[in-house]
Amino acid sequence: MALDIKICGLKTDKALAAALAGGASYVGFIFFAKSPRYVEPAEAGRLREAAIGKAQAVAVTVDASNAFLDEIVEKMHPDMLQLHGSETPERVAAIKARHGLPVMKALPVGEAADLERIKPFIGIADRFLFDAKPPRGSELPGGNGIAFDWHILAGLDAGVDYMLSGGLNAANIGDALRLASPPAIDISSGVESAPGVKDPALIEQFFRAVRAARNTRAA
Question: Which of 59, 81, 197, 207 would be a feasible disulfide site paired with 22, CB 3.0-4.6 Å?
Answer without folding.
Answer: 207
